[in-house]
């Protein structure tokens, strides 16, 4: 199932004026979003997708969900190999169970709502403006640039950091219960891992944790490279689906072979060619 709706026709342009870049209304939305990102590293643009398309959005992604690579694995917050040499008290030694699954970009039709938005120049310009950047680049990674995150009942996506600096996501299907998005804004920076703070959250400290209420069609802008975050265990009979639109400030960003195997169960030549680009020296 796919649509042929143009990207601007998918968006509630009455609230989010993508049809009028640089207008006063555009600048007002951008200013509000930038303020929230500066304050807590996250902003939610409620009801971004038009109400009459939300069922199409849900159905398209539900049709893709069976293509998700599903394998419950033991991971750490940095998604590096568990046998990586680390000091005894390093938070990377905390092992968690990852039960979510990902549909890779090469399984997502270019005509789908999420792919049309992801590749839309005007959408990218809007997102870049919200992040205060001159431009954003789609990830060069052929698997992880655009994905569908599928969390089945009884499963969770444990605490982790993102590879890319900026993540844009959209809930496409709500679970019956559970599946809350929790995050710790600015718990690390490009200059400092802040291991003590990360270790405390992994040990159960909830003081730095914020929780978001999300609905299908909401657009979430998030600085996921610097915020430890998770999706709590999904409850009931309905899976949680969310589209992940991954962008970077610089071209050429490709995931590591280790992390790619974890997420998709396969790697491509691009992941083995040593072409990965990073903007910092963080663990991952």
Secondary structure layout:
Layout: H1 7-10, H2 24-40, E1 42-45, H3 54-64, E2 73-75, E3 96-98, E4 101-103, H4 113-119, H5 121-130, E5 137-138, E6 146-151, E7 157-160, E8 166-173, E9 177-178, E10 181-184, H6 195-202, E11 210-212, E12 219-222, E13 228-231, E14 234-235, E15 240-248, H7 257-264, H8 269-272
Antiparallel strand pairs: 1-12, 2-3, 4-6, 5-15, 6-15, 7-13, 8-12, 8-15, 9-14, 10-11, 10-13
Describe the overall structure:
The chain is an alpha+beta fold. It has one domain: q2cbj1_9rhob like domain (Jelly Rolls). Helix content is 24%, strand content 21%. It has eight helices and 15 strands. Strands 1, 4, 5, 6, 8, 12 and 15 form a seven-stranded antiparallel beta sheet that branches. A four-stranded antiparallel beta sheet has the order 7-13-10-11, with no helix packed on it. The longest helix is centred in the N-terminal third of the chain and has 17 residues. It is globular. It starts with 6 loop residues before the first helix and ends in a 12-residue tail after the last helix. The mean pLDDT is 91.
């Amino acid at each position: 199932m796919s649509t042929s709706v143009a990207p601007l026709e998918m968006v509630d342009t009455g609230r989010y004026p993508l049809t009028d870049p640089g207008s006063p209304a555009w600048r007002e939305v951008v200013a509000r979003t930038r303020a929230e990102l500066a304050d807590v590293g996250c902003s939610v643009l409620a009801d971004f997708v038009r109400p009459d398309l939300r069922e199409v959005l849900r159905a398209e992604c539900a049709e893709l969900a069976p293509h998700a690579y599903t394998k419950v694995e033991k991971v750490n917050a940095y998604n590096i190999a568990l046998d990586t040499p680390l000091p005894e008290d390093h938070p990377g030694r905390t092992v968690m169970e990852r039960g979510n699954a990902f549909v890779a970009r090469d399984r997502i039709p270019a005509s789908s709502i999420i792919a049309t938005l992801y590749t839309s120049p005007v959408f990218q310009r809007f997102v870049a403006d919200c992040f205060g950047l001159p431009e954003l680049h789609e990830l060069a990674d052929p698997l992880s640039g655009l994905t569908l995150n599928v969390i089945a009942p009884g499963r969770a996506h444990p605490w982790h950091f993102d590879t890319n600096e900026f993540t844009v996501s959209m809930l496409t299907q709500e679970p019956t219960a559970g599946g809350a998005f929790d995050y710790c804004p600015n718990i690390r920076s490009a200059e400092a891992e802040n291991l003590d703070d990360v270790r405390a959250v992994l040990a159960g400290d909830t003081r730095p944790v914020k929780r978001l209420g999300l609905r299908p069609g909401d657009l979430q802008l998030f600085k996921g490279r610097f915020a430890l975050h998770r999706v709590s265990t999904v409850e009931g009979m309905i899976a949680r689906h969310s589209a992940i639109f991954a962008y970077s400030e610089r071209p050429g960003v490709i995931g590591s072979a280790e992390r790619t195997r974890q997420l998709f169960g396969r790697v491509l030549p691009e992941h083995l060619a040593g072409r990965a680009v990073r903007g910092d020296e963080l663990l991952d």
